Each structure stands twice: as structure tokens, then as C-alpha cells.
Amino acid sequence: MYNVYTIRDVIRVPPKDFGMDLKEAVLKIAQQEYEGIVDEELGIVVAVKDVVSVGDGKVIPGDGAAYYLSELEMVAFKPELQEVVAGKVTEITEFGAFVKIGPIEGLVHVSQIMDDYINYDQKNGWFEGRDSGKKLIVDDSVLTRIITSSLKSTVQNSKIGMTMRQIGLGKEDWVDIDEKQKDKKKVVRDAKSKEPKSQKPERQRK
């Protein structure tokens, strides 16, 4: 999920930026330093939105830059287990589908795409449910549930695992398909329950 944080950090402003408005200089440098990094507590920093305050500058002998204790407001994305998130399919492979959620891609393993036997069409680049007829292709918008999350030092090294097997997940039109399948199963069950039961022949006592 996305969260907004306010943190305090010392920002180094080099001499070439002394002519800028101080807050603008601190914001520019903070964006360069923070945006895109992965923090164990915050998650993936998506954007540094604002500089809340800037303290008095300090100069270190031998360093021409000025150092400012600053309060920064930033937005970060941290995947939470069991969280339902919207995403877009970016790649279809034999072993699953990659889905972009926020600033990171996660994998929906082939076994977690749908509650159906799946055919992988390599030529056309899609998955199709054998019984349901559901299809999944690149650029499809989907709802997924996060089932594993491992944030590493970079976005590229981080791994997110997701599922779309439950009713309500996956593509929007899959909900209608699931409802129709439920109705069909109900009709079959009702028909079977109305079938006359075979009666066993009565045994005659000797």
C-alpha cells in the first residue's frame, strides 16, 4: 500500500546550488537521493513530495558544501501480505504472468492465475482456462492478492508473489464467468437431486 511519511535527514547542498531557493535545492537533492530506493521499514520510495522545514546550515572544514537538517515528506509503497492490489499484466511466460503493481513487478505463478486447468498459448502470448474460457494477455488490468513479499536492496532484486485464484480477483469480466459457472453447477445439482431414487426390491420372508 501507499503511505506518506515525514522523516528527518541531513541534506548536503553543494556550492553550485547556493544560488537556488534553499527549499527548492533541498527538495531537488532529496528527490535524487531517495526516489527509487528500497527501505526495509518504509518500502519503495516513490516520491519526495515536499520539504517541511530546513534548519540552519553547517559547514565542514575542507568541504565547500553546506549541510541542512531537513524534514521531508515522501510517499512510499510497501507490499503487505494478503493485500489486494490493482495492477497491469506486463509479460506472459510459460511459468506465469508478471504484473506491475505500483513501482514494482510481481509474479503470478501459473498455478495461481485461475481456479481452472490452464493452457499456455506461446504463439499468441496468453493463458486460457480450459473449462471457463478465461483469457489473460499482456496489458490486461487485474486485481491480485499479495501472498509473498521479499524487499531487497533494490527494486530489481525484490520479489513479490501474488494470486488471482479466488473469486473476485483477476480480470473484471472473470466475475461474470465465475457467477455463470456457479449457476450451471447449481442447476446440475438440483437436477440430480430431483432424479427418482431406485427402490430396492423387497425381500419375501419364507
Number of domains: 2
Which segments are poorly predicted (pLDDT under 50) over 5 or more consecutive residues? Answer: none
Helix content: 10-25%
Indicate the CATH class of the largest domain: Mainly Beta
Shape verdict: elongated
Distance between the termini: 79 Å
Q: What is the number of strand segments?
A: 12
Subcellular location: Cytoplasm
Function: DNA-dependent RNA polymerase (RNAP) catalyzes the transcription of DNA into RNA using the four ribonucleoside triphosphates as substrates.
Organism: Candidatus Iainarchaeum sp
Subunit structure: Part of the RNA polymerase complex. Forms a stalk with Rpo4 that extends from the main structure.
Question: Can you tell me about this structure?
Answer:
One of its GO terms (biological process) is DNA-templated transcription initiation. Keywords: Cytoplasm, DNA-directed RNA polymerase, Nucleotidyltransferase, Transcription, Transferase. GO terms for molecular function: DNA binding; DNA-directed RNA polymerase activity. This is DNA-directed RNA polymerase subunit Rpo7. By secondary structure, the protein is an alpha+beta fold. It folds into two domains: 2-77, RNA polymerase Rpb7-like, N-terminal domain (Dna Ligase, domain 1), CATH 3.30.1490; 84-188, Nucleic acid-binding proteins (OB fold (Dihydrolipoamide Acetyltransferase, E2P), Beta Barrel). The chain is 16% helix and 44% strand. It is built from two helices and twelve strands, in the order βαβββββββββββα. The strands form three sheets. The protein has a five-stranded mixed β-barrel with strand order 5-6-7-12-11. A hairpin with a 4-residue loop joins β8 and β9.
